[in-house]
Automatic annotation (TrEMBL):
Domain of life (superkingdom): Bacteria
Species of provenance: Massilia terrae
Protein name as it appears in the record: ABM domain-containing protein
Length: 95
């Protein structure tokens, strides 16, 4: 079952997003293994990221193997604090 994650970074900016995504994604043209959707943009009070993974397990592998290690060491110009996270099992996903 697909698994969704939202990350809201209070006070986050596009510049911080660009620095962070460059550090945690393989490229601008390719998503991490298991991720099938990625969207991000400004919202009231900060920056939001929405990612859909093909399973909860692939999200956990990405989180534990890439995201947390890179962010815990700090990303030059990236987000400076952990996000507010919401996770959910995807009920409906259209192409």
């Amino acid at each position: 079952m697909a698994y969704g994650i939202t990350h809201f970074f209070p006070g986050g900016t596009q510049e911080q997003y660009e620095a962070t995504i460059a550090a945690v994604h393989p490229s601008r043209e390719k998503l991490p293994k298991g991720q099938i959707y990625h969207a991000a943009g400004p919202t009231a009070g900060g920056w939001i990221i929405v990612a859909i993974h093909d399973s909860k397990e692939s999200w956990e592998q990405f989180r534990e193997g890439i995201l947390i290690p890179k962010m815990s060491h700090g990303i030059n110009g990236g987000f400076t604090a952990p996000p507010q996270e919401t996770a959910f099992e995807v009920h409906n996903l259209l192409p």
